[in-house]
Amino acid sequence: MTDTFKIGRIGKTHGVKGEVTFHFTDDVFDRVDADYVFVETEGLIVPFFFEEYRFRNGETALVKFEGIDDADQAARLTGCDVYFPRELSDDDGSQLSWDEIVGFSIIDAESGDSVGVVTAVDLTTINTLFELRADDGRPLLIPANDDLIDDIDRAGRTITMRLPGGLLDM
């Protein structure tokens, strides 16, 4: 799972030939022209190869996977989470998607200590927030502000941040 990141979820079936709706939060599968994604089914992540897909809108695609040829087979995928391999992401060195950041550790630039691990990114507020599971187990929110970020180490899966005084005590 650490070699992948979640990019969406399979919705309902579409038609009778095995198509499903795919609600995605990151269109990386299209940007890098990937042949497959991983689908979490029965507790395992399994590669599913695209036969074809087409976008319905900016958040939904209709997908036909190889080997899924009828509505009954497609129905077994309904509600399953979809993941993308990190090694195939469009790493141009300049940007990470919000989905890719989940699982990264936040490091306090001043002390060098780990603060916690990003469990989600909250985009629902005016200021984007990193939701963390702090090293002591408590939930923590940290502003995902470019001015606070000193370094992002993709290989080490860490983000070094200059955190405002008192933020960790809230």
Question: Can you describe this structure?
Answer:
Helix content is 8%, strand content 46%. The protein is elongated, with a radius of gyration of 18 Å. The protein is mainly β. The longest helix has 5 residues, at 71-75. A 6-stranded antiparallel beta barrel has the order 1-2-5-4-3-6. A 6-stranded mixed β-sheet has the order 10-9-8-7-12-11. Strand 9 and strand 10 (139-143) form a beta hairpin. The chain contains 3 helices and 12 strands; from the N terminus they run ββαβββαβαββββββ.
Structure summarized in a few sentences:
The chain has 170 residues and is mainly β. Helix content is 8%, strand content 46%.
